[in-house]
């Protein structure tokens, strides 16, 4: 599905609206999740909750706004910047790495200021608006959105990670002064992007799900949870190997591709999460960061990337060994003791971009196929992740069919409180099936005249389009099997 087709399909089926606010012309980088989109986004977030709670992480929620001192300590005030080129003729600005990548079809994400200027000069790159020359300097534009707390300077958080570290002393008390322990947070973050682009992949307001494992440095290679997954295989691109290698976790640790066992476990957990959403294995890889690419806090970093039709490989989950940089910095700047047992713990992080996973899930689930000479668009989501799990249809709006259909619909809603069941009586059965195919509903249940006398219904499977008769009394059990996949 091409980019413009994605935008059209997502809007038509009420997944994504925008740029918002539409009635005022829209602002780049701001989108709304429509009625079906919000259902899907909830499922992606809830799957994160399920997996990480199962693996002993606890959820917290922290403020969106924090004082400037926090971001000075974390390094964001100095280092959280985009590199900008300014036209000497019309004064328009472009983000340097994006501009170079678009013009030359190369990766410029790790370019230094010097390399950017050398490239612009050597390749004679000029302003896309007026064809003027750029100033011979690279300006740094801080991505954080500034605000005030009364008369105090503050910032809206650009990530959920930093605000998760600040209550460390409370975590330590809650976990009875024992490490390691894990916490996670799902919430909004904000970045004043110079050039928001690629639909919902790079927005000014977005959702992150970030898990943090607090662990002593000398315990990272003694991490006991690794023992049951050492033979699990991962699609890795280590810096040392320079190409994709399907390797077991045991091999990756032996070759010292992955820094330690705790990080290896985190990488595996992010893989399990992505697979549970329905991202195909053959479209996932882990790419290790080179030293010059690594964030200022990172000791090792692996991005879980998903291959997309429109943008190639994109990062959706970052796995980082952050060392003890964060707690040291906040201890130093706050004057508080951020140690445990006399040592400052390290942090292993799993940082998922919910919006990016949303995009990849739709793009990788979309299928266009011909059925009996007619084109069918269908989203083949995993049943658990689909926005709507089942739709109930009366064949006709007469002869007590709607009454029976509504009773079945209400019974199913009560039986499956965690799933979304809908009732639809508008249009022909064929049109209703097509509507549900396009939003990825795995099962449609039709109540017809035989249902009145035989007490059974027709269930249609989204992927195969096969239909079978099922007794009404057996319907919950049959759906339970289908929805467990």
Account of the protein in words:
The chain is α+β, with helices and mostly antiparallel strands. 33% of the residues lie in helices and 27% in strands. It contains 16 helices and 24 strands. It has a 9-stranded mixed beta sheet, with helices on both faces. Helix 2 (35-54) packs antiparallel against helix 10 (261-277) and helix 2 crosses helix 12 (354-365). The longest helix has 20 residues, at 35-54. The radius of gyration is 25 Å and the shape is globular. It starts with a helix and ends with a helix. The mean pLDDT is 94.
Considering DSSP H and I runs of 4 or more, what fraction of the residues is helical? 25-40%
N-to-C CA distance: 26 Å
* Number of E-type strands: 24
Structural class: alpha+beta
**CA-based shape:** globular
Low-confidence spans: pLDDT under 50, at least 5 residues? none
Main beta-sheet annotation: 9 strands, mixed
Average pLDDT over all residues: 94
Instruction: Specify the number of helices.
Output: 16
The side-by-side strand order for the widest beta sheet comes to 3-10-11-17-16-15-14-12-13
Q: From the alpha-carbon coordinates, what is the Rg to the nearest angstrom?
A: 25 Å
- Percent in strands: 25-35%
List keywords for this structure.
alpha+beta; 485 residues; nine-stranded mixed beta sheet; 27% strand; single chain
